[in-house]
Design brief:
Length: 393
């Protein structure tokens, strides 16, 4: 996590302290990682439980759907309840779900635990609005870039750690280790997080109902969530199938190779603060368009140079930088719409983005089952191409 500290100290001072910002970025990365540990182990799970590629892909799909449900029904509470207490309670239940996964006796139980992990790993989406709330208005893009940079590091290192650990000690060890990390993180947050009082006294029903009002009122919100959902569908469609294509000829790699490939994506985290600062100074629209165009380019590289490990590495680098940059810019647009509704705006943005990821995991899996890696590449390029068109409308 030294990259996070470097990203913080290279920018101007913010209203939020550097130490707290680093803690929030690391906590966001560690909590979001729980959604993605299962992706690098799909090959192992398919072999152990004697499952087809289509069946084993249900695990990341349902984990993502659980994440969507958590974002929709839990994350809006950040506007209604005291944020510190909400974060700590959610993390406690997340630990329980991880322990269930660690002792799961069957794939069905693992899927049930995966849904619970996705549901309560939405604590990440309580941390992000908290960081934006604590930042000064002129530096929200930078702060958002650093925290979402931590999230991307968590996502890519989740695959690296999961791949290596599951190869060496089995997939159960991944969930045991994850539960330990969450207990440690919760202890640190207990000591460091400030109390942040609610910004609204709406009842829970009216709080959820206001999501539709926000969506109906803000055209920028509708455009941003559509573009990001399409981009994330392409992104998850790629990562959900990488373990399967690496297990097949000409690669014949194990889960560790998937994890090592994910390390390339850490460069995307370094691009996040730059994208945030660019959005602060020049506006986010151009950043979004550039990001979507680069996603299309990445899938063109994947499709045109199949079997080339060098092309795969270059494409992964471009893909992760592009997705992270577009997300930071789109979130900056969304958070500026209503300061009193940031948790709810984040709920709408992240729920649709993760739903896009679930569609990407399922659609990419079906495309791979039908047409192999070419099908995954076509799916990703089509999704990103549509996002590019939407970003210009």
């Amino acid at each position: 996590m030294n990259a996070i500290a470097e990203m913080i100290t290279t920018g101007p001072k913010s209203a939020i302290s550097d130490g707290l910002l680093a803690i929030l970025a690391i906590a966001a990365g560690l909590t979001v990682a729980n959604n993605y540990y299962n992706q690098a182990m799909l090959g192992l799970l398919a072999s152990e439980f004697q499952l087809s590629a289509g069946t084993v892909s249900l695990l990341p799909v349902l984990t993502q759907l659980g994440n969507v449900a958590g974002i929709l029904f839990l994350a809006p509470l950040g506007d209604r309840l005291e944020r510190r207490s909400l974060i700590l309670i959610t993390m406690a239940v997340l630990v329980v779900a991880l322990l269930v996964a660690a002792v799961a006796p069957s794939f069905a139980w693992l899927v049930i635990a995966g849904i619970g992990i996705g549901l309560f790993a939405t604590v990440t989406q309580q941390i992000v609005p908290l960081a934006v709330h604590l930042a000064s208005p002129s530096e929200r893009g930078r702060v958002l870039g650093i925290v979402t940079g931590g999230i991307l590091i968590g996502i890519v290192l989740a695959r690296t750690i999961s791949g290596i650990v599951s190869d060496l000690w089995g997939w159960q060890a991944v969930f045991w280790a994850a539960s330990g990390l969450m207990i440690t993180t919760a202890a640190v947050l207990t000591v460091t997080l400030p109390r942040v009082e609610p910004s609204t006294d709406l009842s829970y029903g009216r709080l959820l109902g206001s999501l539709w009002s926000l969506l109906r009122t803000h055209r920028v919100l509708r455009q941003a969530i559509t573009v990001q959902a399409l981009i994330f569908a392409a992104f998850i469609g790629f990562w959900s199938n990488l373990a399967l294509v690496f297990a097949a000829p000409p690669y014949r790699f194990g889960a560790t190779a998937v994890g090592l490939m994910a390390l390339v994506g850490v460069a995307g985290a370094l691009a996040a603060p730059l994208a945030g600062r660019f959005a602060d100074r020049r506006g986010p629209d151009t950043t979004v368009t550039i990001g979507t165009g680069l996603v299309v380019l990445a899938f063109a590289i994947f499709g045109l140079f199949q079997g080339s490990l060098v092309a795969m590495i270059i494409g992964v680098l471009i893909l992760d930088v592009a997705v992270q940059s577009s997300q930071v810019a789109n979130q900056a647009r969304v958070y500026a719409l209503d300061p009193d509704a940031r948790s709810r705006l984040n709920t709408i943005f992240m729920a649709t983005m993760i739903l896009g990821g679930a569609v990407g995991a399922g659609g990419g899996g079906l495309a791979y089952s039908a047409w192999g890696w070419s099908g995954t590449c076509i799916f990703g390029a089509a999704s990103a191409g549509l996002a590019l068109l939407m970003s210009r409308s």
